[in-house]
Structure formats: structure tokens, C-alpha cells
Amino acid sequence: MRLSRALFTTWREAPADAETPGIQMLVRAGYVRKVGSGLYAHLPLMHRVVQKLEALIREELDGLAQEVSFPVLQPEGLWQESGRWAAYTQAEGIMFTVQDRAGRRHALGPTHEEVAVDVVRGLVRSYRDLPVSVYQFGRKFRDELRPRFGLLRTREFVMKDAYSFHADAESLAEQYEAMGAAYARVLSRLGVAWRSVEADSGSIGGSASREFMVLADVGEDEVLFTEDGRYAANAERAVSRAAAAPPSPFRVFARHHTPGTPTVASACAVLGCEAAHMVKNVLYDAVTADGRLTPVLVSVRGDHQVNGVKLWNAVQARVPGTLVRLDVADTAVWAAGALPLGYVAPDLPDGVIAARDGVHGAFLRLCDEAAAECRDFTTGANEPDWHVTGANWGDTFPRSEVVDVRQAQAGEASRHDPAQRLYSARGIEMGHIFQLGTRYAQAMGATFAAADGAERPFQMGCYGIGVTRLAQAVAEQCADGRGLVWPAVIAPHDVLLTVVDVGNEAQVQAAEALYAQLRALGVDALLDDRPGRAGAKFADADLTGIPLRVTLGRGVERGEAELKVRVTGEATLLNLEEAAREVHVRVEAALTRA
């Protein structure tokens, strides 16, 4: 390709809404252009990066799955069968829906589990036909509330999604590990720092899931891990050993007048104790798709925070219907009278809930594991401006159902070894794999004839890689102050040939000859034959991040060209007669390492 004929423009400054270094460089280097909130055009250089990423992923999936293409437009009926229509249109509200001229509703696919099940249940009848594993590359659509960080959170993106179907859980587990190993190879070939972590399965569901994170300061996710390499988890799912609370200063039960102390800090200051000596009680509204509201009372230690994902999962498992909202309570909706907010006790009576349509008449009461271990603690007295001290479970207060809803923190001890502390890093999720089990097959009546003749539901797995997210994740980690620094395996071109003075016939002829020689050798060369200042061309070369640059300037008169390696800045003089061979050797070596 010749830059003089290319759709290629660079920018000295990035737009103000380009929040991260990676998207700033992608915009400035002419890879992408924003056309709307969460919507980006992929320009020629970016299109080549995405194509090469897809080719890399295909190489690693060879033999593990067959490539297919599913429709983006999906009938509502399939999502109703799986039970996820309400979850995706109301709870997360993330699914774009459209209506055809006959009034039938469809989803613009955010994911394809339902379509995959529908296809396989119509084609696979016997255990002899299993396992089956398929994958596709395609556009996905998600109605993000706040698209941000460039390609990391968009409304339309490229994804590789795969689905596998098995006769038993053992076969599913084997494919799950094989796909995880393929993801590890992809990231290792890219040369980026990454971690595989335990993850929450979210609305996809299933018994186990694992995320693959590219480490970057701009990552939206927090990863907690131990130095021994035996534990790593997304903070949404992470567990730890809570530090033991110091001995309580309270020996007997008592009530205390504590006016103006609705917070943990203010109450502890008046009572002369630490936050770990308090049990705080937080009220939530749990709303299901049918409009039913269940008040939830959660007890946690005063120095701990509620993990919203863990709480969602705990509540979803305990209320009937599809949970679509879980927020800090709007107590005006359900309270029968004034509430002692800031002074609530674990035994806040159900009678504070008004009897009205759509409101469940009793609290769902949950107590975090660490709070359940508290002894002689302080908490609210269910009366404004009053607290109690020296309280105990089973004596002062009935014990609520004990669950883990606490947010694990860096610095806490791991559960597998108390000598191992949790460390924190930021990560960009680029891949997620799931063992779904029979959830979708049972819901959608997808069965096969087992060896004993019985009809059994498929065991299913799903496996996703955000291709455009991964491209920007690489940019975030590999860019420097001058621009992008692409790994050779996904760089848009292998080498950039820069003509210093297009008015110099000798330089132009040397560049044209080298360009033709490289293309004949199979080297993907880009020729910068634009008029303009040499300094601007060199800046553009650094900005685009192409691994090698060959400069054809005054040295041409001596039969020389300069080869510069983008990542190291190393410069070498080449004999023009040997230049094509030397560049070819370097390109082949870089691709072999990948």
C-alpha cells in the first residue's frame, strides 16, 4: 500500500473525549474515528490489525472448533425460551431490540447462546454426534449506559464467540480447559502481560467461569492475586480471610443515647470503639421482572463493604422470578412509617413494610460471614439516636442467613494460605470462558439420545474474545510517548518505507525497487511516498507503531538505507542491494517468535 493513495490522516492532538492513552494514539495515528457515542469507524490500518488478530485466533482454534456464522438478528422467542429476554431488556437493559413490519420483536445479538442451542438441537440427535464445537467472528451490539474508554466499552464491537455441546460434564471440562489454553497462547504470542482469573458468570450463567485480563492501569476491572500464583480472581468474585476484629471493649449488653451519629465513623467515635466492633445494616430493594419488590436487609461488619455482584447473586438465588434491579432502598416506597435510618438493627421488624400491591411483606435477611463472627458488637437500636453495645447473635439478635457478600481487599490474607496476601492490579477483560452445564439446554428443550437410550440435555460451554477490545488493550500496554508499538504478529504492516525527499529521483527509485523486492518476498510493506517534511514523516512512522522502518534519504547516494526498530529505537545501516533480504529475515524472525 502507498500512503499517497491511502485514507490516512494523523493528528497532533487527540480529541478531549479520548480518555485513555491507547485510544488517544489510535485516533491520532489514523486507525479509528469516532462517529457517535460508543461507535467507531475502523480505518484501513485498524481494519488490518483486526484481520490479523482474527487470523491469530483462528490459528489457535484450529482443531478445537469449526467456524460458522450466525445471524445478528435473533427472534424474541428464542430469548423467551431461555428466560433471558427480561434480564437483558429490563435488568441490564443492555440489549437493542427491533420490531419488524409484522410486529415481531427481535434482538440485535449481544451474544449468541440461544441461537447456538437452536441450531444444534435441530441437527444433533445422538451422543455419537458429540462433542460439537463451533465459533464465529461477528459484530455484537450492546446498549451501554455510558460508553467510554474508546473501544473498551462500545455499543458495537467485533467479537469471537464459541459454543460447545457435550454428552457429559467431563467432556465439557476438557473443552473448557482446551479453550482456556488457546486463549493463553493468543495472549502469549502478543507478548502482553496478562492474567487468567476466577470470575463471576453474570447473566450468562453457569457453574464456572474464567476471565483473561490484559494488565493495564486504565483497566475497568480490579484483579486480586497472590504472589505464589495459586490464586487470582476478579474483585467481583474474590474471597479472602477477613482480618480478625480486635477484642471488643463491650462486656455487657447496654443501650446508649448517641444523637447525631448515623454513620459508622460518628457512632464509633462516640462509643469509643473501632469500626470492626460494629455491625451495620443496609437496606436494599430487590425488584423482579413481574414488578414484585422484596426488601433486603444485609448485615456486614462496620469496616467492610458490600460486594454488589455477590449480593446480586445471593438475592437472585433466594427470590422467585428474574431479578431486574437491586438498589439501596427507596424506603418511601415500602415503609409503613418513619424508619430509624442510620440506627437500624439486624432485627428491624417486618412490620415497617407497608402492605401494598407489589411489595413482599417480609425482609430477606442476609448476614455476611465476617459479621456473623462478631461478638459483643455494637449496632443500631431500631430507634433514632440510639445504639446498643455488647450484642451477640443468637442472644440479642436472631442469626440471619449467613452468606459471603463482603468485598475482598488487597492486603488481606488468602483463603488457601494465610501467609499469602492479596495484591491488586488493574486489568482489561478481553476473554471470558464459561461452563454453562445444562442451563440453556434444559430451558430450551435441547436434548440428545444418550448411550442408554434416554433423552438428556446437552452440557454446554461458551467462550468469548473481544477482538476490538483486545486490539486497544494491546495499544494501552504497548504504546509509548511517541505512539503505538504493535507486536509484529498483528501490526498492520511489517515494514514502513519512508522516502525523505520525493523530489529526489534516486531516493524514489530506490524506494520503489525495495518496495517491489519486499512484496515479491511476501513482506507486507507500506510505502510513505507523500510529499512533505522528513520530520513529520518520521513522527508519523513512530505514531503508527509499525515494527520496522526503512529510511531512504541521502544515504541512497552511497548505496545505503537506514533500518530502525520501533520498539527499541535501534538503527542499522543497510546496503541497498542486501536491504530486502535483511528486512525479510528480520520480519520472519519476529513472526516466528510470535
TrEMBL record:
It is found in: Cytoplasm. It comes from the Bacteria. One of its GO terms (molecular function) is proline-tRNA ligase activity. Keywords: Aminoacyl-tRNA synthetase, ATP-binding, Cytoplasm, Ligase, Nucleotide-binding, Protein biosynthesis. InterPro entries: aa-tRNA-synt_IIb, aa-tRNA-synth_II, aa-tRNA-synth_II/BPL/LPL, Anticodon-bd, Anticodon-bd_dom_sf, Pro-tRNA-ligase_IIa, Pro-tRNA-synth_IIa_bac-type, Pro-tRNA-Synthase_IIa_type1. Its EC number is 6.1.1.15. The keyword Ligase applies. It catalyses: tRNA(Pro) + L-proline + ATP = L-prolyl-tRNA(Pro) + AMP + diphosphate. Its main location: cytoplasm. It is an enzyme of class 6 (ligase). Gene3D superfamilies: Anticodon-binding domain, Bira Bifunctional Protein, Domain 2. Residues 48-487 form the Aminoacyl-transfer RNA synthetases class-II family profile domain. Homodimer. Catalyzes the attachment of proline to tRNA(Pro) in a two-step reaction: proline is first activated by ATP to form Pro-AMP and then transferred to the acceptor end of tRNA(Pro). As ProRS can inadvertently accommodate and process non-cognate amino acids such as alanine and cysteine, to avoid such errors it has two additional distinct editing activities against alanine. One activity is designated as 'pretransfer' editing and involves the tRNA(Pro)-independent hydrolysis of activated Ala-AMP. Belongs to the class-II aminoacyl-tRNA synthetase family. ProS type 1 subfamily. Consists of three domains: the N-terminal catalytic domain, the editing domain and the C-terminal anticodon-binding domain. This is Proline--tRNA ligase.
